Write a sequence for this structure.
């Protein structure tokens, strides 16, 4: 992710959302349990757990282990390792950047290492339940696929029932979509940081120009179809053209760790030829601390959302920022202060020149604010 979302984004809507959703979910739960009480699902899922699924964390949940295990299990089952945007790209990236991850120099053995890493990352008691005896599924691409199909089959019926219990139509019926989206106060798509996704009113009814992305697609993770923490407000392009229901290995975006400096734009537009337009400025995505597989895998995010290609378009914008940087001179500031007969703080001065402020809220309210941050404020 180029920016990440704070855990309190749902603070305002949480209680109200729960009050609207819990009743139909409970009713549905009871109806499904009455139909098939022996289904393995009901060994795991008790009525008192429903609340935690709806408004609890879905990543690294400390209250109820099942949530994390389910997430990992479905990730492993549906991980698109055939996709060029996934393992292939990561592998290429690791190679190009000389990231010392593999003990082997043989390409085939490196793939085995990669699959072994993925398996151990997502392995848990649910996976063990599904696979039974210990077989090594990482030796070939085909055996990895076999393993994935085993898990899918084992949880097929359970997922069918979950789909009925956590029915996304409950949100539509209660008219909650717009309310969830506007309560997050995120006005710019957090995936691309380019498109406005604000709310507005038509005849006193709330509308939003955003999509409600299920970070873990509801078709593959039906347990999370109504989970508040699975909802990412996003633009139509990121949600329905690029991401859709793909399951790739990249960082879950809602956490309180500041990733601002971890993934950043590196802009080169310093020489005269670039500034006057004889040569194109360059915009690259860079990452700090690429020390393990996870870091390398977050490359998937950049590939999935086509960040580097899409940002090619903003070279002109970057050039403008760089030209304006020439105004960051004390003489010019003094001159401006003497004409306007006021004192100008440095933050207002920056705002005056670039049209952006340097604070975290800006990231969710102004398009391209991350690019500005990395180009101007953090260069
Ligand atoms: Zn977007």
């Amino acid at each position: 992710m180029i920016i990440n979302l704070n855990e309190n984004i749902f603070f305002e809507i949480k209680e109200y959302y729960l009050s609207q959703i819990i009743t139909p979910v409970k009713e549905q739960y009871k109806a499904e349990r009455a139909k098939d009480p022996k289904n393995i699902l009901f060994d795991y899922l008790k009525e008192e757990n429903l609340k935690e699924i709806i408004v609890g964390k879905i990543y690294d949940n400390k209250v109820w282990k099942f949530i994390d295990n389910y997430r990992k299990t479905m990730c492993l089952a549906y991980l698109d390792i055939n996709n060029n945007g996934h393992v292939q790209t990561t592998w290429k990236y690791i190679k190009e950047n000389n990231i010392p991850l593999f003990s082997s120099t043989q390409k085939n053995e490196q793939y085995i290492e990669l699959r072994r890493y993925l398996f151990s990352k997502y392995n848990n008691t649910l996976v063990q339940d599904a696979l039974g005896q210990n077989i090594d599924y990482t030796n070939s691409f085909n055996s990895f696929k076999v393993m994935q199909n085993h898990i899918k089959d084992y949880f097929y019926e359970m997922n069918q029932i979950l789909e009925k219990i956590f029915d996304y139509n409950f949100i539509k019926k209660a008219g909650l979509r717009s309310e969830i989206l506007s309560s997050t106060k995120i006005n710019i798509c957090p995936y691309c940081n380019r498109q406005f996704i604000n709310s507005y009113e038509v005849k006193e009814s709330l509308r939003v120009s955003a999509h409600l992305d299920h970070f873990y697609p509801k078709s593959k993770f039906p347990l999370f179809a109504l989970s508040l923490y699975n909802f990412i407000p996003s633009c139509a392009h990121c949600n329905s053209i690029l991401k859709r229901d793909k399951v790739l290995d990249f960082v879950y975006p809602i956490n309180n760790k500041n990733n601002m400096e971890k993934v950043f734009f590196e802009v080169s537009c310093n020489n005269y030829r670039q500034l006057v337009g004889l040569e194109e400025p360059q915009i690259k995505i860079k990452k700090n601390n690429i020390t393990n597989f996870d870091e390398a895998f977050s490359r998937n995010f950049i590939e999935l959302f086509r960040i580097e290609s899409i940002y090619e378009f903003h070279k002109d914008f970057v050039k403008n920022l760089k030209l304006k940087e020439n105004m960051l001179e004390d003489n010019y500031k003094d001159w401006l202060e003497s004409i306007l007969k006021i004192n100008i703080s440095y933050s207002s001065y920056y705002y005056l020149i670039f049209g952006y402020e340097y604070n975290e809220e800006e990231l969710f309210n102004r398009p391209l604010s991350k690019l500005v941050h990395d180009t101007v404020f953090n260069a």
